[in-house]
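User: Last request for today: this protein with magnesium ion, please.
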Amino acid sequence: MDNYLNRMRQQITKRLDFIGRACMLFVEAVRFIPTLPKQWFRVIDHAFSMGYLTLPIVGVLSFFIGAVLALETGYSLANFAGAQRYLGNIVGLSMCQELGPVMTALLLAGRVGSSITAEIASMKVYQEVDALTTMNIPPARVLVMPRLVAIAFMMPILTIFSVIIGWYGGAVVSQHVDFIHLDPNIYWRGLKSLVEFESVWDGLVKAEIFGLLIVLIACNEGLRTQGGPREIGRAVTRAVVASMVAVLFLNYFITKIQL
Amino acid sequence: MHASQQNQAESKRQPVSVRVDQVSKRFGAQEVLKNVGFEVEPGEIFVIMGPSGSGKSVLLKNIIGLEVPDEGTVWIDQLDASKRETHSQVLTAMVFQSGALFNSLSVFDNLAFYPREHELYDEGTLKKKVDRVLEMLSLQDAAEKLPSALSGGMRKRVAIARALMMEPQLLLYDEPTSELDPIMAATICEIIATLRDELGVTSVVVTHDRDVASSIGDRVAVLMHGSIRKIDTMDKLKAIDDSEIKEFLNPEVNLKHPRFKTQ
Ligand SMILES: Nc1ncnc2c1ncn2[C@@H]1O[C@H](COP(=O)(O)OP(=O)(O)OP(=O)(O)O)[C@@H](O)[C@H]1O
Ligand SMILES: [Mg+2]
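Assistant: Here's the final one, the structure of the complex with magnesium ion:
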């Protein structure tokens, strides 16, 4: 029993320690924002690989999420005469407030978070980070800050893209599946009647927080890595799991605040 | 901030001293350094020799501030080496045993990294400086290559070149000649000596090579099992009456040694 309590205490201390370090890293990185004019080339580089190259997969994912959402809901509503007219409203709101931001974030954790951790962890393991330190160049300045800025720019773009493609996926299914057969005009009118600028904005705010969080966790895990190459793999796993859990957990609370 | 750093470095370009004061370092249960103490004079070339695993690299990391001693302190000109500020007041650089090159950058960009980040020169001057250092180490043809496309010895030379680009006052070399042919090793020795003669750079050189130690080392320290066994000039060390040091410095190849019996 005592043993169990001890282990639990250790686990909690470890989590708190992790959160504390991540916060410190964030503050340190933010302090280097004045060096941004000299580091645009890094920001653009990261924005390209984290954002632009992620667009296609975000598109595919969002299309099918919108599509399956319309399919499921349309099927359930088939028994209620006329209820399918509200498909646009349903898909419209769920995409922009929940599914768009959350799915984009989860995808980002897998695709971008993992590659950031792998890159930084290998720099740590092969002493490149040590070399930076001996050059009086803090890793937070050249490794973390540009990535945070890049994701801050790209996350809204990715999310809006995801939302629009998701809406479109819903529209395609509503129009062409035989047990729904909804006039696209009705779909889009319903969507417009319910989705306000504020709903989209709430989704974007959420996504922005998720994006920064994922990159921060990924950088932090990378910089904490110690030991040999095997640790790189472990760090990647930890970063992806931690950021996915953090996204889902935070999503609940942010949604509650935004309601 | 960086411009002032440069000015500081220029105005303070006097040779620096290093004092390792009773430093101990543990990793878990293993005591890697035990009460290590010595002083390196300003402008001296101080060589550290010792068997593999005796703690040489760990000692250098304590001097450059990457590791913090459990006990004792390393002083660089009265400044505590474990504090990061020390290393911007006194410019220190280290040639890592593994090279620690930036793997995603070309050789040229590796060399240019420090001056660019600290905005020391304009691109034209920078290119000239990098080209000169590359030439010193016969690396002209490798400028555009990535570290993954280099041989072990080339990587070592790039690591040295990158440290030279920092124009440090204190330079720590972790086995600078270990992967080089004798001619290149001699060139490295010349560079280390020239830096001292012309710029007053203080050097601490970890090496396994007795020729390197005797040709450039003002003094040589023998580190064994984490403690300093002896500090003296190479000639005196060779003549010393300590069987362990003697065997370390003048090993005899004995193929008939019982160790090598197959049965
Ligand atoms: N980060 C670390 N964690 C745990 N043990 C370490 C660490 N770094 C070094 N050691 C241990 O400290 C001892 C000394 O290591 P060090 O790298 O200083 O040896 P060395 O004298 O440089 O050897 P070589 O000549 O082979 O490079 C070794 O036994 C090593 O296992
Ligand atoms: Mg070593």
